[in-house]
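A quick aside before the break. I want you to see a complete sequence-to-structure record at least once, exactly as it would be stored in a machine-readable document. Don't worry about memorizing anything.
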Amino acid sequence: MSNDQAEVLHQSLSWLAQGRCIWLCSIVATYGSAPRPRGALFATDGTHRSGSISGGCIEDAFVNMLARGEHDAPLSLLDYGAHLAPDGSAFELPCGGRIRLLVERLEGDEASADLAAWLTKLQGDLPFVREVLLDQGKRTYLAGEVKELCEQDEPGRVRLSYALRWRLLLLGISQVSEQVARLGQAAGFEVRLCDTRELYRSDWHWGPEQGGIAVEWCDPERFVERHATAQSAVLALAHDPRIDDAGLMAGLESNAFYLGAMGSVRTTARRLERLQRIGEASQYQLARIHAPIGLPIGSKTPIEIAIAVLAEVIAVRQGITLQNCTDAT
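That is the input. The structure line, written in tokens, reads:
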């Protein structure tokens, strides 16, 4: 679940409960270097705002359109920039991209019921698709991962996937794992952490009472087996082979989209040798491990290493190929 999406729906429900009419914008498609992904949400009552669909330029332009009396239809599609280029020429955002929006004008109890159902599903563990039929004004929710349609594929029908839970599975308490957990949660990941070393219990300073996460005191291999999915990244951050190696061996047997391990080039070579000798990992499996972990930005401090790690995880998730870091971490 995206915290940003949930926040927009919570705020929208609050405005509807106050009897206001609101406009909810969902990104249906992006072209080029758009600043926000498909499914991002923005809501406004014409004055107040929640969420984001750009760096601010589209939000400002949309509120100005409302002030001019535009977007009175219950459902419509908006290609941002087309209204500025009546000759049909392409119009791009300052970042070089273009965005298509689904615009929903909402008010009343029926709209509140739909948003409440949407929010409930968004807070669940299962992926789903929200389907909107523009001509009929019908909104339905489809279970599982269904093909997302472009308007050109099936005119009048929009499908957007939600609740794909991207997870960070952190192995070992450390200063780096704390910073990765903080950044990961802020970036919308579900973050989990395991350790078996009771000696480090007092070293975790970001528990639920601080708005963070609880440590799962369990075997790292079972931890990874229990939580790893195709939307998971397994990060070995303990600097302790008893934790890191066990978790990585389980990670190699999983379909996690990212495996990474902290350590210098020399430490990495020793780890790979152990995984091959003790864990009987193949060269193909070992090639999945990003080690030394993170992008090569010269990171030294825990927060710098965490930034490098999360940047690489996001790049891999987005299908962007980057050279692995060769700096010691």
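Two observations worth writing down. The first helix runs from residue 3 to 17. The chain has a mean pLDDT of 88. We'll return to this after the break.
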